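Box 3.1 — From sequence to structure: TIGR03643 family protein
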Amino acid sequence: MSDKQIHRLTSSDMDRIIEMAWEDRTPFEAIEFQFGLSEQEVIVLMRKHLKPSSWRMWRSRVQGRVTKHLGKRLEEVDRFKCSRQKSVSLNRISKRH
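Predicted structure (token representation):
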């Protein structure tokens, strides 16, 4: 995806990409699958849209993180879900039974 294509992303797409990039367990491959951005394009996007101090903090977090790359993971990492966590269904929180 070129710089021109990155500019065509909606504001909510950009927010979601940045959120996914910050999440420790969301691999770059998930962002590429959902939005078509390679790891390098995510890095460029983050550099453009974060404050310099936030950019440096994010880069230092991501560089050594195995969970950000599917190929480097030893085994599939499942998301943790607390037994008390409520389910979200059609934008409504389901009641616990």
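Summary of the box: The chain has one domain: 3-73.
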